[in-house]
Amino acid sequence: MSRSGKRTLIHGVINLILPFAMIALRQIILKNAENPWAWFLFMVVLAFLPFFSDAIAIIIACVRLKKSREKVLLAGLFFSVLAIPLQLFLRFGAAW
After folding, report:
1. Quick one: CA dihedral 63, 64, 68, 72, positive or negative?
2. Where are the domains of the chain?
């Protein structure tokens, strides 16, 4: 297992955990903030950070997978791709 394979796998696992952390942090800020508008820019970053992280991880994993066919790279790519519908479900589907 190469170093790039480990990094891709770790990035994929972080992408699976990131949506839960973002939702928890957003709820803590909105519950405890006296003025929620003061946190508006930070909340916008929290809303789009998981998607940017997923996109970066998928691009990097695809480039590395093209160079070497490691199963760890494929697992990291799978986790990053799986994190996108998870993020969408947690943001929009949980409110249904």
Report:
1. negative
2. 3-93
